[in-house]
């Protein structure tokens, strides 16, 4: 048995709507605002009350639906959609969601954001019972579990199945006559409910997708909940009450869009406060100005600048056009290629001592190049400030953060890191300040203020199942081989 | 005779290099940083000293060169490249540059940024002499002029031809053994020279393209100059000395990249100063914060905020993914569609009085939607501030700014405009402040500090030739019909 | 429950090889010679002894593998390939074969030529047990059956499964270390074994595929046989001995290539003999010449001419280029469009009395146009002769011959048909003469000389399972509704 | 100066119509029946009386117009179309016809079948006068010549220009209000006029295109004629009376479709008679049967069989599906690859002495493989008979027949050729018998019965201009270098 651990990770955005005209077009607009959550594939399944219709392909949403006819064919008043971040190697079209499964007793479509931690175990068990899988995605497992116990009826079979899968998950299921959403017992991934003026409901990964389609925010989906939407309206059910909020802090730190509101907290505001607390914890007394790494770190940088009483300047420019990465030039050209994403503004940084605020350091290669870029543009001093704690442990709940061996902070002290990246000084935000900056109002008495901070302290809020033995053990032995 | 005036307008970015290995790949990287100057088509012509090789197509650079082989086939140590902004209607592949003309006595490739104001007249004259044109682009005219007087020798024929064409132009010409650049007598369009460590030269539309390829800035190209680069190095020549700098102020206002330096002025710094002067001229006493329209107005907004002593906030988010515009939804969906580009951050603007800084108002439709977006997100007051004077007259020198009938400020007072877009107050920067903010050091005693500000005051620095009779006259009669 | 009967029909060509370098390229060449058996989709799965690799798509083989890299990536020394005839409506890429199923205990690829008559029943039973199907093809059923009884071991599970499926089938299965072929108990579809000089074996739908790859014919696969090829060579096994040869007569009549040899009979020779016997049974005393409908009826026409002592002429020309059928012109143009496939040679038929030999009449529309074409070209008399008996009943074993309601001979007498198509006379071959013309040496004492002639007499050699109730009953009531 | 001679050769089919609804669709159907004349590119230009519309691309007609919208956009009641045979190297889309040239005083479209023998000379002269060419095709020259003398008026300028170009040509020109056809003074290429029931006219390369669109044959176009079609109907004019019919005999031998009638002779009948005369001149006393190489040699083979009193058999099968040629297998596979086009029918030829009739031998490689194919299938004796004289000299009038160095018969005796290809005997038709077999009724007292037979005897009916010095001289020295 040799599943590749990495291949199972997926990050995604999901969108579902029930009871509106041209549901697939609305879904297209909604997915567009969730495109930052996944750029490798996109798809939509619609229902006209009788049949389900599917279109999906690899690529950006606008590439997938480059021919409008492919969208027009998805008729009906209900739809679910998906944008997918796929790690290389399992980038087959068979893995692009939503999945659509056809049965003689009624079709089911499925879209998923998250990562199951017992996927391998369940898959082997199912295959040993005769199951035939069509994708390498762990998402498909849910359908097999449901169908194994179809005699219970759909909703009860779904509830029982949700109690078998472990990890982080936000599922959307579409049948010809209903839309169902389900969130894992820790609420690792965000999911919110909105409503249109006509009363129809919509379920989305982030609230920014509500704004674009003109829906009003109703409430977040909570851990263990099942949201059932049909012609009778919306009903909240539970498949478990053994829940404890532990929302992924990386959503606030860099993954979600700044205008989204997750569990009552505007992401931009959380980031700005991370920047303020960072300025208190990690001042840079000699600095002339603060600059942010566009786009995800601009909020934190402006917070740092305000707190520090320093000017906030535009010292780095991001090229908004994406270059193909295939072009592998000679070594000489490759170093120039690095500059295709970011440019330093010489007229701003020349001769200055600058604080650069970034959201995180993963492998450290980008940070090193960033420092060099600023020095090449004439910066006198470069003080790197990171608006989150050092990343030392991987995420098993749905964000592809690479393995531990690749995480720079897992293997180096802050002092070493500073030296390697070539900065004058380097400082990180502390875990307590991170929790304070976010301050989830819904947290109740959940640990860490309702956040998962395991990426920083290694204390995962759940057992890790498949990863426990095969993976973490190998981490301890530091014998990781990667392709 | 019925050429469509609009169809001749083109905005572009050009890049040329001579004497480096893999010249076409370098050109690819350079064009990538100029992509903001044109997204409708791209192409490269290379020379290996014997033959010229061409590849071009419609679309973004990364789409055009999606198959790396198309780039690899462009062998050689010299190349010119082009990214093109094409108005609809003449978007044929035959109009995508660089053009490559094959002759029994040696091929010539040509790339152009600008607009000729006597193109129609010249084209008719040439056709009447037997010329056969292959594109509807005015760029092709230069080749016909050169070939008509080929007996003079290439450089002298080119010089004579450059004295026949009128308007704004920056030309790059590539032959098997030389690269030539030429700028119009007013220097309407920017063009700069860089140099590699190995001594090879590069000519670019904006200096941001020098940084990405690792070249050092040498000097700007000046009006009337001819830059000839061959195996003997670089030589500056002139085809005319009757010159007067009148660089397009729109390059500073919104078109160029903020990290580019044009005639000694960093674009970001100019914009920031426009924001500062705007804050002085058009204060907003009741405002709580300043926000900018991403991305082009962020520099000016931060300048405004600093001058006004107000917090600079991220109240608007730009979706970095481009949606296909073809999707024409129902009226209901269309208004939502507007929100696909920009989102207001409710958590920032709710209950606040905000100053929104934008770089310009063309038709006013975007401004109106912007104001509505902010009000929908809960903004208490919306004070629109524009970091340039009211746009009243079209550009005939290479920027496609629509016709005068479409320019909101050409037909409405500022008070009317404020009412139409729905803002609480509206204020523009004055022309003198614009000139002060930019302050071109190279200007000498040129009028308007070496800038073209005709878009604001209608005083064009040159005769308008083809546009004089047919076009401007019709403008005065306001009888414009457009398709 | 509402499966569409038509949608399950499939006609195909299959090719499998084990133990040669570049097995996928060999498979490509082999499939090319089987392209006449299916033009809607093509695919290849290869094995390098460790892993299986798949590529498939809709379209002709040369379109599917238009990029040679897609073929090169299919490394290894074993492969199976498939060309598919798909009826409209189920033309999804998910239905293009070979299918590749990945399991934690070893992958299985599958290619199929035929039609299962109990597919709906089996599929419902499997779904009720929890099976999740990924295609609408009945081929996938075999894998589910095998996996349900995987504890038996692969070969025994396969044998047991082959006893559960009914109808006409020729299966190829590829695992990392073996290639298996299986034929139904009546041998409805042809399948032959070949061998290379190096000893490696190949299994093909028709022997014409052996010639193109340079393999020598070994033997045909017989009903009920299982052919297992691995590193130990070839082994013939049986999953049942309750067999009776009833090979599809339509393979000889029009489907197979004339150079193929099926159960010892060269297809061209069988057709020529059909023509000779037709000339005896259905002479045309006033005729000046004999012409055939290209390409499938040329053999029979030359046989008719020889027997009748008439000149064999080229009176009809087939356009070898395929026109898109999408172009739906006005009524006036549509009738011209008919002529795009076939042209009459005026210089041959003008003023002459001609015998036209065709292989069969399905709906009669082509025959009618053919007669008109010849009359327009000046033919004096047109005597239509069909080298097979009247088609009255559909095929349920793998050839998509339309439903009975569409079969002209099912609803009209020969005299009526002659009148409708506008011929001077019309004559068909008798069933006994068809059997005599083919004379399968391997037939033993099987009924009808080892042939299925149910299309002509309605006496199917097996029960029809799913089709028995739902379909044939409806045929009797002549209440067929088709989309 | 170094034009490649080979690159100028082009073979094509042309179709023009004036005065019918949906002219472009009719042109599509007409071109489909001319597809055998060129498979490398296709295009159509239509006129709606005001504007001309163009679409063209590389590939087969059905590939070029795969999207029906591209055809629908070509509105209007007049159109010209072109299918193109392009030699490698100049296969740019810029060379695909019809060409469309836009002028301020009216557009002109142009389609050409033929080859100009003074193209290089004219092109250099024109370039020296300032002309800028957009293609490497010699066709474009005509437009430049016309425009140089545009003051004469269009028809007179065209007439004068037609007297300047030399070689073989059939031109179609479309303007917004007229369609003009012109044929060279020797009528090297066929061109015929047809008429619809509504009186509208059509001009085509071969009469088979009349049948498919439902037009009646009116007359052939004769050497030196100008056919002018406009709203006033059809008018025949002349640009020269110094004419002498010398139609290309290769059209009858292998190029034209068998159902076409050229100057009164049905191509199939001419070929059958070539076969009969070949049987008389080159009998094969020991033969058991006659087989033809499909498809072009089947007519001649049946003629040979009838004359010889031998059975005509189908011993070779042509695969009707075209394989991509890019797939370059190992040497072992390559020899199998040869068999992808043709297959021998073992059941027919095994143990037999066969006469194989082919239309011609160019390089001899195909003949060699053919003989081997038949021997591999068990043929006892192989007697190769060629239904035309030995090909020793290239065509300069429009058929790409390779250079003389590649023509097997230019460098070997018949006895040598027989040995090289491995046949038992080899025999060719004589030139007088070729002329007798065709017997053009329109020939009058023109030499060689109105045919060009220079490919066999080297006596070209015109001076060869560009080819005289540079090319034929080099042939005499047998110093040809090709790429």
Which short descriptors sum up this protein?
Rossmann fold, homotetramer, metal-binding (chains A, B, C, D), 19 helices, amidophosphoribosyltransferase activity (chains A, B, C, D), alpha+beta, magnesium ion binding (chains A, B, C, D), six-stranded antiparallel beta sheet, disordered N terminus, transferase (chains A, B, C, D), Amidophosphoribosyltransferase (chains A, B, C, D), 483 residues, 2 domains, Glutamine Phosphoribosylpyrophosphate, subunit 1, domain 1
Task: Give an overview of the whole structure.
Chains A, B, C, D: In the C-terminal section; belongs to the purine/pyrimidine phosphoribosyltransferase family. Chains A, B, C, D: Pfam families: GATase_6, Pribosyltran. Chains A, B, C, D: Its EC number is 2.4.2.14. Chains A, B, C, D: Keywords: Glutamine amidotransferase, Glycosyltransferase, Magnesium, Metal-binding, Purine biosynthesis, Transferase. The structure is a homotetramer of 483-residue chains. Chain A is α+β, with helices and mostly antiparallel strands and 483 residues long. The first copy, chain A, folds into 2 domains: 5-244, Aminohydrolase, N-terminal nucleophile (Ntn) domain (Glutamine Phosphoribosylpyrophosphate, subunit 1, domain 1, 4-Layer Sandwich), CATH 3.60.20; 265-321 and 328-440, Rossmann fold. Chain A contains 19 helices and 24 strands. In chain A, the strands form 6 sheets. In chain A, strands 3-2-4-1-10-9-11 form a 7-stranded antiparallel sheet. A 6-stranded antiparallel sheet of chain A has the order 5-6-7-8-12-13, with no helix packed on it. The longest helix of chain A has 15 residues, at 267-281. Chain A starts with a helix and ends in a 7-residue tail after the last helix. Chains in contact: A-B, A-C, B-D, C-D. The interface between B and D is medium-sized, with 25 and 25 residues.
């Amino acid at each position: 048995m040799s599943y590749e651990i990495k291949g199972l990770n997926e990050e995604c955005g999901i969108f579902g709507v029930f009871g509106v005209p041209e549901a697939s077009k609305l879904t297209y607009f909604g997915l567009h605002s969730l495109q930052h959550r996944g750029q490798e594939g996109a798809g939509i399944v619609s229902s006209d009350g009788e049949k389900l219709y599917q279109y999906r392909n690899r690529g950006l949403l606008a590439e997938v639906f480059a021919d409008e006819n492919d969208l027009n064919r998805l008729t009906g008043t209900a739809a679910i959609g998906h944008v997918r971040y796929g790690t290389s190697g399992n980038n087959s079209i068979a893995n692009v969601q939503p999945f659509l499964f056809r049965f003689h007793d009624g079709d089911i479509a499925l879209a998923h954001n998250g990562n199951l931690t017992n996927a391998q175990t369940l898959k082997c068990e199912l295959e040993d019972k005769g199951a035939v899988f069509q994708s390498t995605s762990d998402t498909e497992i849910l359908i097999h579990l449901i169908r194994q116990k179809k005699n219970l009826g759909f909703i009860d079979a779904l509830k029982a199945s949700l109690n078998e899968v472990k990890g982080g998950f936000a599922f959307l299921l579409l049948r010809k006559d209903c839309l169902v959403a389900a969130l894992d017992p820790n609420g690792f991934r965000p999911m919110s409910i909105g409503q249109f003026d006509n009363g129809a409901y919509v379920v989305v990964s982030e609230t920014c997708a509500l704004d674009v389609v003109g829906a009003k925010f109703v409430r977040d989906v909570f851990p263990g909940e099942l949201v059932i939407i049909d012609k009778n309206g919306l009903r909240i059910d539970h498949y478990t009450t053994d829940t404890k909020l532990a929302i992924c802090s990386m959503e606030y730190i860099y993954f979600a869009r700044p205008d989204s509101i997750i569990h009552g907290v505007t992401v931009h505001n959380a980031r700005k406060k991370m920047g303020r607390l960072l300025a208190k914890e990690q001042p840079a007394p000699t600095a002339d100005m603060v600059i942010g790494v566009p786009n995800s770190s601009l909020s934190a940088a402006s917070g740092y600048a305000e707190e520090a009483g320093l000017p906030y300047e535009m010292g780095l420019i991001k090229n908004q056009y994406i270059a193909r990465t295939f072009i592998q030039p000679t070594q000489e050209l490759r170093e120039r290629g690095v500059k295709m994403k970011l440019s330093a503004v010489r007229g701003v940084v020349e001769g200055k001592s600058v604080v650069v605020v970034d959201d995180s350091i993963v492998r450290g290669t980008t940070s090193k190049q960033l420092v060099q870029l600023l020095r090449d543009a004439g910066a006198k001093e470069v003080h790197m400030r990171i608006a989150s704690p050092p990343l030392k442990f991987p995420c098993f709940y749905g964000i592809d953060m690479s393995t531990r061996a690749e995480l720079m902070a897992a293997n180096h002290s802050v002092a070493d890191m500073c030296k390697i990246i070539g900065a004058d000084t380097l400082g990180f935000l502390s875990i307590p300040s991170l929790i304070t900056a976010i301050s989830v109002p819904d947290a109740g008495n959940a640990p860490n203020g309702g956040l998962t901070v395991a990426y920083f302290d290694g204390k995962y809020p759940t057992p890790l199942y498949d990863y426990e033995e095969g993976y973490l053990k190998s981490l301890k032995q530091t014998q990781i081989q990667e392709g």
